[in-house]
């Protein structure tokens, strides 16, 4: 194990895990999502070209990926800084910033945001989904990929000395490509060397999370220290969810605030409402998984910021927690989900 043992690694250095406080385990503060642009519905091209007007806000919520400008979160650092201050005032302590290679990770900006706001920011190592893998990435062996990921944690990433504190979000699609499989194996090998937390972006199919776990496990990964993200758009059947939960990963509901009718990346999927998400959390708590639940908003487009009428980074603290308390989740269980579970996951072994 590394000398990071028992500590959490933020962009400002190592911290005592007790210092984190309430933690959103899946957010983005600066990134581009251009890789996932989706053309607008026919006839809506004019709105898509000029979206940030009050009368277009509903359209933007329904079609966030169909407007190039909306995908450039990295243009909104001032608004994000303001929001982080609000988040801190609302009782937030830490944020895991999941931007990996392929999404224009910007570690100096994360460091500056942490310094300016006092929010602990934990950055992500590794690679996003296949369509963002460069030719170089695609040609690398598992050993070479492992060395890059380990170095991003031990020495710093992207030519800086700013170190990542988690591996991920590691991007996978469905079916999982060969290049994504190599990255998953490298993730498991790096985790074995470092004893560090891992977080996965699964493909949009109910079978995808378990297949990722299988690949990680086969490569020696520590599933108990791994988060499966985006379960709110991936597994809908309660029986299937319990089957997956038995595999032992953290179960992350990280699209709080996102309510849309037509999910463009898989139109078979009905994106749940926040009320449905809370209901699923209450179900998992009842089934004994309160130690495994994590929550976040996964802000990755501009329209999700309060500046543009969105829910912002404080939505869970301000709106979802009170709802959880009225739906059979106790204050102690809420504290586990927001404080204890993130702390345990983020602490290096
Ligand atoms: C940045 C990112 O990967 N967000 C997830 C979007 S998705 O629609 O839930 O896959």
Automatic annotation (TrEMBL):
One Pfam family matching this protein: PTE
Catalysis performed (reactions): N-acetyl-L-leucine + H2O = L-leucine + acetate; N-propanoyltaurine + H2O = propanoate + taurine; N-acetyl-L-isoleucine + H2O = L-isoleucine + acetate; N-acetyl-L-valine + H2O = L-valine + acetate
Cofactor: a divalent metal cation
Statement: the UniProt record of this protein carries the keyword Secreted: no
Binding residue positions for a divalent metal cation 1: 26, 28, 169, 298
GO molecular function: hydrolase activity; zinc ion binding
Cofactor note: Binds 2 divalent metal cations per subunit.
SUPFAM superfamilies reported in the protein's UniProt record: Metallo-dependent hydrolases
Top-level division of the source organism's lineage: Eukaryota
Family: Belongs to the metallo-dependent hydrolases superfamily. Phosphotriesterase family.
Protein name: N-acetyltaurine hydrolase
The organism's taxonomic lineage, starting at the top: Eukaryota, Metazoa, Chordata, Craniata, Vertebrata
């Amino acid at each position: 194990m590394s000398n990071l043992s028992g500590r959490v690694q933020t962009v400002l250095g190592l911290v005592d895990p007790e210092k984190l406080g309430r933690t959103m385990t899946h957010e983005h503060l600066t990134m581009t999502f251009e890789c996932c642009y989706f053309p607008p519905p026919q006839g809506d091209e004019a709105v898509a070209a000029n979206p940030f007007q009050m009368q277009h806000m509903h359209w933007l919520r329904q079609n966030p990926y169909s407007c190039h400008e909306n995908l450039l979160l990295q243009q909104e650092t001032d608004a994000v800084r303001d929001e982080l201050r609000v988040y801190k005032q609302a009782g937030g302590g830490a944020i895991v910033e999941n931007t990996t290679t392929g999404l224009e990770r910007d570690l100096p900006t994360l460091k500056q945001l942490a310094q300016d706001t006092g929010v602990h920011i934990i950055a992500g190592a590794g690679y996003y989904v296949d369509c963002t893998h460069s030719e170089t990435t695609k040609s690398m062996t598992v050993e070479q990929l492992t060395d890059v990921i380990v170095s991003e944690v031990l020495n710093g990433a992207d030519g800086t000395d700013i170190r990542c504190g988690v591996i991920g979000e590691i991007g996978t699609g469905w079916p999982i490509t060969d290049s994504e499989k190599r990255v998953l194996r490298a993730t498991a090998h790096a985790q074995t060397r470092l004893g560090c937390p891992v977080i996965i972006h699964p493909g949009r199919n109910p079978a995808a999370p378990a297949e990722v776990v299988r690949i990680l496990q086969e490569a020696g990964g520590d599933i108990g220290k791994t988060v499966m993200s985006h379960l709110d758009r991936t597994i809908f059947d309660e029986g299937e969810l319990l089957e997956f939960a038995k595999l032992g990963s953290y179960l992350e509901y990280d699209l709080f605030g996102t309510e849309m009718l037509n999910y463009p990346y898989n139109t078979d999927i009905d994106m749940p409402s926040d009320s449905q998400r809370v209901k699923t959390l209450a179900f998992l708590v009842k089934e004994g998984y309160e130690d495994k639940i994590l929550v976040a908003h996964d802000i990755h487009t501009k329209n999700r910021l309060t500046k543009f009428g969105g829910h912002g980074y404080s939505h869970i603290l301000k709106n979802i927690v009170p709802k959880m308390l009225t739906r059979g989740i106790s204050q102690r269980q809420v504290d586990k989900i927001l404080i204890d579970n993130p702390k345990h996951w983020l602490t290096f072994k």
